[in-house]
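ok so dumb question maybe but i'm new to this and my supervisor (M.) told me to 'just get the structure for Catalase' and walked off. so i did the thing. is this what she meant?? sequence i used:
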Amino acid sequence: MERKPKKPNRKAEQVEQFSRNNYNQKLTTNQGTKIANDENTLKAGERGPSLLEDFIMREKLSHFDRERIPERVVHARGYGVYGNFKVYQSQEALTKADFLQNPNVETPVFLRFSEVAGSKGAAETVRDVRGFAVKFYTEEGNFDLVGNNIPVFFIQDGLKFPDLIHAVKPEPNNEIPQAATAHDTFWDFIANNPESTHMMMWIMSDRTIPKSFRTMEGFGVHTFKLVNARGNVHFVKFHWKPRLGVHSLVWDESQKLGGIDPDFHRRDIWELIDSGGEAVWELGIQVIEEKDEFMFDFDILDATKLWPEEDVPVRIIGEMRLNRNVENVFAETEQVALHPGNIVPGIDFTNDPLLQTRLFSYTDTQMYRVGTNHQELPINAPICPFHNNQRDGAMRYIVDQGNVAYKKNSIWNNTPKEVPPSQGGFETYPETVSGKKIRKTAPSFADHYSQARLFWNSMSHWEKDHIANAFSFELGKVKSKDVRQQVVTQIGKVSNALASAVAEQIGVNKANVKESSVTKSSPALSMAKTKKMVETLKVGVLVADGFDDAMTKDILTRLQQADVRLVIISEKQQAVKGKNMNRLEVNDSFLTASPLLYDALLVVGGENLDEYTKAEMKSYVREQYMHYKPIAFLKQAAFIAKELGIEGGLGVLVETRENKSQFTQEFLTNLAQQRFFSRK
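this is what came out, is it supposed to look like this??
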């Protein structure tokens, strides 16, 4: 793919001020002293003891000893990308937020994808909730939309968050398992916290094994407020809709990928952007008028509930394009301090009890992890000017001038000056608040099963099969039979059919409980009808010497024109020759590649294949077929489909005299389908 020129980016220009290129420079200490020898410690004689006075050694090792900051307790495994956001048309009727007004203005953004449960070294394809956190560098300050790829959460009140994470993390007696929910303490927590039932259904769906970062939805999870210039308020939920649709891995595939390529997700987006491509999402909002706050059969402030899109449609208001990789993962992705409390005029908080506790916890976390002055780091600093009387603290590098560090003052004419709301100063929405001090959950938060049933009703047949299998796998790993039984009983309140299928698999009694009576469904929750495109899909091309170069060249050219990414695979990483002696450069060998890495296979074959090549091609085809992916065979390789007994199978295309002229188009049609879940 031809690399496209990168657009100028104001945030990039700001970060560039702090960049350092060491290429072809003289080696110095951090104080600028030139170093003559960086190979040997200063010693008393060649074989004598090292000397403590060696300031070069002390600086180098003491810095190395501190190269890592504390790992995030959750969302430790993350990857970040820069881009831009643009609103489609002014949202002034809803909000006075400046970045949502002018369609001609691009707002720089930084997006950090992450996993919740695993440590920093966990594989990226494990079953887990994914973080989807966007920092908008607006002209009024930073707005951070810190959410997940699932619209609901496990708990209603943030006071229980430490308990949830203690349960989901590796068990403390043996620190097993890593980045997995398939163990006793997690499911014991679920069984004893019925508010987690809805989330339980989502995490057992394929949403928690996404195909790529680029095919995940993002959600703000919480209910926020939009405030316009007249002081009118609307409740809002934020959605990110991927241009490529919502697609996931299948379970067997995700497990194997963890060993084949634990960096599978970050490699995909890094390679795409490095080659000049972009990852695109549209921003949508669901809006409820203030007067309609209590008209629903759920509480709109309950983070374990979603707003069904059929009842509250999603309005698409803008577009985000990710198009620039980070220069240094630690300095940018690891040190980025995302915080749901970072808001701008026109956006405000609600009384969602989970959101309210996050507003404290995230500040506390960033202070601990990154330091007192984490806001000054290039990745966190706003693009607009910022002035206040805060001073000092660890790692302060802004050099404040003058002798005034307080308010009110006369020496500096009481500056920095406060800004009235009419000139852009932040003004908290003057909501009326009353009530007794009490530790209690609102009765409107009490229904834990209706939306879980709504989710189940909305799934296609194959999604339901995958959920049942996920429950059976996860609970099958739970050693406590009592916990398994409790969870099956809980599932029964959602669906007796689902609970019975799981109970039979894991050896416990069927649930003797009344299931939810909800019959409604929400088609928007199913991935079965998501957008299906061939753009940027990756096709593995299996080829050997003596291949049909004329037909192959035509197919590969047309696939590339459709923006399909091709990886040529053969026995060795050296060019192969066609029947007409045309050469085709090989990208990977059977040894260095894997069928798991491709969205489809094109089996070109070649003349007189040796037994090793035949066996490898068959192995690739079996794996792809088992994962429901499209496979196409040119005439020379048709015998492989026949010998494997898949000729005529769903999504399997074999070149014949009759379909030769339409072969490529038929393959592209199959490729757009991506998975053939009815395949047996």
